[in-house]
Specification:
Elements lengths: L1 E10 L3 H12 L4 E4 L11 E4 L2 E4 L4 E2 L4 H10 L3 E3 L5 E5 L5 E4 L8 H21 L10 H5 L3 H8 L3 H16 L8 H10 L3 H5 L1 H4 L2 E3 L4 H11 L3 E2 L4 E7 L2 E6 L2 E10 L10 E3 L4 H8 L1 E4 L1 E8 L3 H4 L2 E6 L7 E4 L8 E8 H8 L3 H16 L8 E6 L9 E6 L3 H5 L10 E3 L12 H21 L12
Family: Belongs to the flavin monoamine oxidase family.
InterPro entries: Amino_oxidase (IPR002937), FAD/NAD-bd_sf (IPR036188), Flavin_amine_oxidase (IPR001613), Flavin_MAO (IPR050703)
Pfam families: Amino_oxidase
């Protein structure tokens, strides 16, 4: 087993951990990044399946994600627009497909009025509560102890409107049933994207993709860090006191002044902390969990839907596949659709055999786009819930009452251990942009602490 001495040990080589390590190294501190997987990127993963490049994990960039956009520029990565020309498809509660353009589904005037009213209410709450400290709002506990599902139905008797609004947060973002998380958690989701209106506008929230794939962000940062990144090195034990930490992985031990836990909160318990973390941390982590989603890619010889005047964008709150988008790669002559099967719908799909599940999912996509959707040349399901070093998607959220109760402490260091992931972000929460923001913020906090301790002048360049 090799032994290293560094100023900072970073646990997790996703966008947040690598951003923090990159900032710290540029500031003159020595770093070691320990990653359990055999790859970098965390919940971003660009893989080739049966000859098709697929974005298994996070992939989209929206115009407000300035931290990510700046990093893409630094790394020399280009973006391209998601295909969205033509009409979208809405599957109504009766199972009828309707073509439409614009952001609002083709519903009755009464339902449209209710949807717009609910969006307005949520926009107002998002603006009032904000993304950075939602737990500090005077109404935080009130909004955090009622489920999003129940609140929607308190506001409106229109079931179609409630289901459609719920779709954007429950299925589309938190990937949990709307009865399992609070209004405050939904408002945080909206505020982190700038507004609820942004959240329901797929042209905004799913604007662009990265040429070569989003994982390339982490690949290029890791290349800058070189041998400071160790793969296949899950940290089993983290010994800590006020003077520093010792991270014990399978083939390497790192002694450091500071540690960054750059993994989702549900994985903190995979590490044995010696001594144990404070009670407040133990309690808080038990109230945070990731959702469940199956991300489905279906690749076709051609993007057949475009010839029919369709964008490939489809929504149906009652469908097994609640969202479908054109996910064709830059410069690819083939057509790719991506669909999402979330929360309890994913539970139902996992009760089927793989063959039955594939048939049911493709049938649901065909309900939107016709029988040509039944015959892809490449089909792939990504199930982050079964990933050993993730165990869910897309990011952690609190159960009822958890955000107002524990949110103020989620970034509090323990000794010299700092917490950094998109799960803990305000702006950019749940997105790569949030991971990058957290990485920058965590590095800045460590640099401030080191400066306050007079350590920056004596950093151990070339420690080994």
């Amino acid at each position: 087993m090799s032994k290293l001495k560094r100023d900072v040990v970073v646990i997790g080589a996703g966008p947040s951990g690598l951003t923090a390590a990159r900032d710290l190294k540029r500031a003159g501190l020595s770093v070691a990044v320990l990653e359990a997987r055999d790859r970098v990127g965390g919940r971003t993963w660009t893989d080739v399946v049966d000859g098709a490049m697929l974005e298994i994990g996070g992939q989209w960039v929206s115009p407000d994600q300035s931290a990510l956009l700046e990093l893409l520029g630094e790394l020399g990565l280009e973006t391209y627009s998601r295909y969205r020309e033509g009409q979208s498809i809405y599957l109504d509660p009766a199972g009828e497909t309707k073509r439409y353009t614009g952001a609002i589904f083709p519903v009755s005037s009464a339902t449209e009025t209710e949807m717009n009213r609910l969006i307005g209410l949520l926009d107002a709450l998002a603006a009032e509560v904000g993304a950075e400290e939602p737990w500090a709002h005077p109404r935080a506990r009130e909004l955090d102890t009622i489920s999003f599902q129940h609140w929607l139905r308190q506001q409106s008797a229109d079931e179609e409107a409630c289901n459609n609004i719920g779709l954007f947060v429950a299925g589309g973002m938190l990937t949990k049933p709307a009865h399992s998380f609070s209004v405050l958690q939904a408002v945080l989701m909206a505020a982190s994207a700038g507004s609820f209106s942004n959240l329901v506008d797929d042209d905004f929230i799913l604007d662009k993709r990265v040429v070569g794939g989003m994982q390339e962000v982490s690949v290029r940062m890791a290349a800058e860090l070189g041998e400071d990144v160790r793969l296949g090195a899950p940290v089993r034990t983290l010994r800590w006191n006020d003077d520093g930490v010792t991270a014990v992985a399978e083939d390497v031990t790192v002694e450091a002044r500071y540690a960054v836990m750059a993994v989702p909160p549900n994985l903190y318990s995979r590490v044995s902390f010696e001594p144990p973390l404070p009670r407040r941390q133990h309690q808080m982590h038990q109230h945070q969990s990731l959702g469940l989603v199956i991300k489905v890619h279906a690749v076709y010889k051609t993007p057949f839907w475009r010839a029919d005047g369709l964008s490939g964008t489809c929504f149906g709150a009652g469908s097994v596949v609640q969202e479908v988008y054109d996910n064709t790669n830059h410069g690819d002559s083939r057509g790719t659709l991506v669909g999402f099967v979330s929360d309890e719908k994913a539970d139902a799909m996992f009760e089927l055999s793989p063959q039955e599940r594939k048939a049911a999912i493709l049938s649901a996509i065909a309900d939107y786009l016709g029988p040509a959707a039944l015959d892809p040349v490449v089909y792939n399901e990504s199930d982050w819930g079964s990933e050993e070093w993730t165990r869910g998607a897309y990011a952690a959220s609190y159960d009822l009452g958890g955000l107002s109760r524990y949110g103020k402490d989620q970034l509090t260091p323990v000794g010299t251990i700092y917490w950094s992931s998109s799960d803990l972000a305000g702006a950019g929460y749940q997105h790569v942009d949030g991971a990058v923001r957290m990485g920058h913020a965590t590095a800045a906090r460590i640099l401030s602490a080191a400066s306050g301790q007079g350590e920056l002048a004596g950093v151990a360049a070339g420690k080994g």
